[in-house]
Write a structure and sequence with these properties.
This protein has about 260 residues and is an alpha/beta fold. It has one domain. It has eight helices and nine strands. Strands 2-1-8-9 form a four-stranded parallel sheet, sandwiched between helices. A three-stranded mixed sheet has the order 3-4-5. It has a two-stranded antiparallel ribbon with strand order 6-7. Helix 5 links the parallel strand 4 and strand 5. Helix 1 runs parallel beside helix 8.
Length: about 260
């Protein structure tokens, strides 16, 4: 593997819910190859991963997030069935403060997933709705290479073969989700209607986010673009943490190898 000579990087991380866990794999690969991240900007999950990295606690977050499939995710989720979102997010925010003390719930208020934050006469939602890849906001110095990571890319998904352990984790997660949905359906018909509404709006926002991200990439043309398929997982699939980290690592290797081979020739 060729050394990069400590190439300085201005790193931009997109939002994408659980897909954003792929940013961990990208950052690890950049560091492994000798890139020096001098500034970082992110939206939604990208801002969380970027903040945790800047705080020097990415390994701790990674270790914790790998356990979420074991039921911990459900102990963190404070369910609500308002038409503003499925979760309040207060327990998640409290846990995240272990890694980034000054994190704000606005950073994670994904429409239809986490309820919006009220501030005076305003409702604040996740920044990924309008600016999913904040390339205009990264503090870039002369000589810095801008690397943007888009985890909502409209590209084919090549799925890695699942290990026996990964299959067990997925089965446990699906069992918990099924139990929750069954409880909702028994509770009331209006609650079930809300779930259908959330599904429709989430898919619509997902598509809109993907298209707006593509427009931002065309507008700012980063020197390096690392793309992870939007089909890699849904925004709430945190049980796929290990798979997402590897998806990010694989995407980074593919792009960085191409760059380094080009520099050699």
């Amino acid at each position: 593997m060729k050394s990069t000579g400590n190439q300085k990087v201005a790193l931009v991380l997109s939002g994408g819910g659980a897909r954003g866990i792929a940013h961990i794999g990208v950052i690890e690969e950049l560091e492994k190859r000798g890139y020096e991240i001098t500034s970082i900007a992110g939206t939604s999950m990208g801002s969380l991963i970027g903040g945790v990295y800047a705080a020097g606690k990415m390994n701790q977050l990674k270790e914790w997030i790998y356990t979420l499939d074991k039921g911990k995710v459900f102990r963190l989720v404070d369910f609500t069935l308002s038409k503003q979102g499925l979760f309040k997010g207060e327990r998640v925010l409290k846990k995240m403060k272990d890694y980034v003390p000054d994190i704000l719930i606005e950073d994670l208020a994904i429409p239809t997933v986490l309820t919006p934050v009220k501030e005076e006469n305003r409702l604040l939602v996740d920044g990924g709705v309008l600016n999913n890849i904040p390339m205009a906001h990264v503090q870039r110095q002369e000589g810095d290479m801008m690397i943007a990571v888009n985890v909502n890319a409209d590209i084919p998904l090549v799925k890695p073969e699942m290990t026996e352990e990964a299959v067990k984790k997925q089965s446990l997660y699906h069992k918990k989700i099924s139990e929750f949905y069954s409880h909702i359906r028994r509770s009331s018909s209006s609650a079930e209607e809300n779930l259908g509404y959330f599904s429709l709006v989430t898919k619509t926002l997902d598509l809109m986010t993907m298209r707006m991200a593509e427009d931002k990439i065309k507008q700012f043309s980063p020197e390096v673009l690392i793309s992870v398929s939007r089909e890699s997982c849904n925004v709430y699939d945190f049980y796929k943490a290990e798979e997402q980290v590897e998806a990010g690592r694989k995407a980074a290797i593919e792009v960085l190898e191409t760059i380094q081979n080009r520099e050699v020739s």
